[in-house]
Design brief:
This is Tetratricopeptide repeat-containing protein. With about 775 residues, this protein is mainly alpha-helical. The chain contains 39 helices and two strands. Among the domains are: about 130 residues; about 100 residues.
Length: about 775
């Protein structure tokens, strides 16, 4: 019996729950339960029902939580308009599913799922898609088999009643069957699982032309089912091979890597681990520009299972070394597993911990993958104990490093990677000078044949500190193992050189930058060659297969050619074209336009500008600014006698200005100058458009009274044959110019010629008719 008979509801209930949610943390479950039972409570909104039943759950009273959903929920349904009731019912059933899942109430879950399915037979005039995606449906697939299968059925029904998913019916059917297959396989109903998997494959294979099915859908299905039907690999491969036939070579190679991963998993599921590992030569090729998406989550455990302990250790080390804060967290699990094995004396495992101590962000990522340990867990030794302690206190990073270093040195005292990592750390801490670091790095790189960009960058940095930037830039480009390494080395030098040139004179700084561009050019060219070899053969270094990285490399090399090697602009255009074919992004279209402008290729300028505009509109481009090229493209159209297309660009640029809420008077010099040029181009064949544009910006031009803008206004008026006004603006331009400025003096000469032409044409060529007889 409650102590207070007053029913708490509405705003008062909300305030009460606000207080309890805080006090529960301070006073515990018994206090919470006592407060909830202290007086009658009635939730009158969906939000308050959700909060109140959760409070009852936290207080340990399941029946009270169910009563809130049943009683207060029903009262709210009766008080809700008819056309909103069904969405409310869906939400209340979602609450019931979450509650039933929390208490492992199988019968309650099945009843709620059945009620939800029956509700789909009624009108549901709202967006059902958001509900279908709720996490509760994913969670329930891991409940009992009956609940899992019923959940999959209901989820599929919710998809079917969404008319917007008409083109995805085949996918939805395949999704239902593959989920059933996974649930059945989890509960060791293997034959039924295989039947469901084959049904999923059939759903995609028999999809009609109105269905949206692509290569990604087949890979998705293969990823979900290959261990269940490992003998049916060809069913996933064949449609993908057909769909990718017309793609560029880099893109096809990426698809081949994904198919190789399916093939490796197929063999492993059949018990052929050696065959699976052989395919990993292709399957482990990275498909992300930073080295990620590299199949390590399968490859590393397989290497260990196959007894290739040292290879596995090196694989784990390179995962941590390259990916740092983006590493696969499972790596840490296997590192701990091997460090616990007294018979495994490979130096790679403590080296993994050394690298994980590169900084706190990396260590945090690493420790997040360690198996959970509580106070009752026995000691695992000083190193692993320190690692687990660092999970809650990253300030212990130096202690972890010291212990890992000692263990690595015990196992392999002269390991090159120990020397390499210690050299950089000691230099950063100020415990050794640049010459010592350089000596240690040279020894490590030579002894270990270290050809990664981080090692070579550290070597370059130490050399620059010891002997100066110019000496470092004059050194031969080191041999690097992959295209990604060449790319990263070239890009990483930018900030390093920027730091060093701060101490140089302006002339020396310019010289250093030019030398850097040559170093970068050579590095990019080597990287390009490495990646193209990989694409040509389908084999290569793990970091040479990413089409997007190749596209980025093409872009950087093309920029280098365009900006610092003007004789190579043809090659720059080809690089941009290759990059677009491999993995298109807006900078390529921007680069093509800038090359066409430098080549004065008017048809090319017009086409490239159009492509850039539409690509940016379709896919986005944060640095896109048509103000930068509007003058070039309209001039090209003028020279091609395509003035009517100028009107399209004029509309675009004016809308661009409007969308950014830039008033005419707030326009800077360059956009104003461009608008005057556009008006001039239009003045000869489309005078009405030119006049309107001139009238819009004339007040701003007059107010600024800047010499070049006044001269350009004169050109517009000259084109419109408003000769007297043109002369007036030309004269104002001369008056506003700087007589000591060489550019202004040159402009003034041309302006005076224009004035002379206009004034001469205003005079009679000979005697007037009435003077002929004189």
């Amino acid at each position: 019996m409650t102590q207070n008979s007053t029913v708490l509801s509405g705003i008062q209930l909300d305030q009460f729950m606000d207080r309890l949610e805080v006090e529960h943390q301070e006073h515990g479950v018994d206090y919470l339960l006592g407060q909830l039972r202290g007086q009658p409570l009635k939730a009158t909104s969906l939000e308050s029902i959700g909060r109140l039943h959760v409070l009852w759950v936290n207080a340990g009273d399941a029946d009270a939580a169910r009563a809130v959903l049943a009683d207060d929920g029903q009262a709210l349904i009766e008080a809700t308009p008819d056309d909103e009731r069904n969405e409310l019912k869906v939400n209340l059933l979602i609450y019931q599913l979450r509650l039933g899942n929390y208490f492992k109430d199988e019968q309650g879950l099945l009843q709620a799922l059945d009620n939800l399915q029956q509700l789909t037979n009624e009108p549901l005039p709202f967006d059902i898609e958001q509900y279908r995606r709720y996490r509760i449906f994913e969670d329930l697939q891991h409940a009992t088999l009956d609940v899992a299968l019923k959940t999959i059925e209901v989820r599929h029904t919710l998809a079917l009643i969404n008319p917007d998913r008409h083109a995805l019916r085949a996918w939805d059917d395949a999704d239902q069957h593959q989920r059933r297959a996974q649930a059945l396989a989890t509960h060791e109903r293997d034959e039924e699982a295989r039947e469901a998997a084959l049904a999923a494959i059939a759903a995609l294979r028999t999809a009609g032309e109105d269905q949206d099915v692509d290569g990604n859908d087949w890979l998705w299905l293969g990823d979900a089912l290959i261990e269940i039907v490992p003998l049916r690999l060809a069913m996933f491969e064949q449609p993908v091979v057909r769909l990718i036939a017309e793609l560029s070579l880099p893109q096809r190679r990426e698809w081949e890597v994904r198919l190789a991963r399916l093939a490796a998993r197929s063999l492993q599921a059949q018990g052929d681990l050696a065959g699976a590992l052989k395919i990993c030569e292709v399957a482990t090729l990275s498909l992300e520009s930073g080295g990620g998406d590299n199949f390590v989550d399968f490859h590393l455990p397989w290497l260990l299972e196959n007894g290739q302990i040292d290879d596995a250790g090196q694989r784990a080390f390179m995962e941590i070394y390259e990916m740092r804060g983006e590493m696969w967290p499972g790596t840490a699990y296997w590192v701990q597993d091997r460090l616990l094995d007294a018979e495994d004396q490979s130096a790679w495992w403590p080296l993994c911990v050394i690298r994980a101590c590169d900084d706190q962000r990396v260590l945090e990522r690493f420790t997040s993958g360690l198996p959970w340990r509580d106070e009752s867990t026995p000691s695992m030794g000083p190193l692993l104990d320190a690692l687990h302690d660092a999970r809650d206190d990253l300030e212990q990073i130096d202690n972890v490093f010291t212990l890992a270093l000692a263990e690595a040195r015990r196992r392999a005292p002269n390991h090159p990677w120990i020397t390499r990592l210690v050299a950089v750390r000691e230099r950063q801490a100020g415990r050794i000078d640049a010459n010592t670091e350089l000596t240690m790095l040279r020894e490590a790189v030579s002894a270990g044949d270290l050809q990664d960009h981080r090692s070579v960058y550290s070597l370059f940095s130490a050399h620059a500190s010891a002997f100066g930037l110019f000496d470092a830039l004059r050194q031969p480009l080191p041999l690097l193992a992959s295209g990604m390494y060449y790319y990263n080395f070239a890009t990483s030098l930018e900030s390093l050189v920027g730091t060093h040139v701060e101490k140089l004179s302006s002339e020396e700084a310019d010289s250093a930058w030019w030398r850097l561009r040559e170093v970068q050019k050579v590095a990019y060219e080597h990287g390009q060659a490495r990646m193209e070899q990989c694409f040509a053969s389908g084999r290569g270094h793990r970091y040479d297969a990413c089409a997007h990285l190749y596209s980025m490399l093409c872009n950087n090399l093309a920029i280098n050619y365009r900006c610092y090697n003007d004789k190579l602009m043809g090659q720059a255009l080809e690089l941009h074209t290759r990059g677009i074919a491999a993995s298109p992004f807006a900078e390529h279209y921007q680069g093509i336009l800038e090359n066409r402008i430098l080549l004065n290729d008017n048809p090319g300028i017009a086409e490239a500008a159009e492509q850039l505009w539409h690509y940016a509109a379709d896919y986005g481009y944060g640095r896109h600014d048509p103000e930068d090229y509007i003058q070039d493209v309209t001039r090209a159209l003028f020279r091609l006698d395509r003035e009517r297309e100028i009107l399209i660009w004029l509309e675009r640029i004016l809308k661009w200005q409007e969308e950014r809420e830039i008033s005419d008077k707030d326009l800077e010099y360059s956009p104003l100058f461009a608008r005057m040029k556009i008006a001039m181009y239009l003045s000869y064949s489309l005078p009405e458009a030119a006049t309107n544009l001139w009238l819009r910006y004339a007040p701003v031009i007059d107010e600024l009274s800047e010499s070049s803008l006044l001269a350009c206004a004169g050109d517009v008026l000259k084109g419109l044959e408003r000769k007297a006004e043109a002369v007036a603006y030309y004269q104002r331009s001369i008056l506003r110019s700087d007589p000591n400025n060489e550019v202004d003096r040159g402009n003034n000469e041309m302006i005076r010629q224009c004035i002379a032409e206009l004034q001469a044409s205003a005079k009679p060529a000979g005697k007037a008719w009435w003077q002929i007889w004189k």
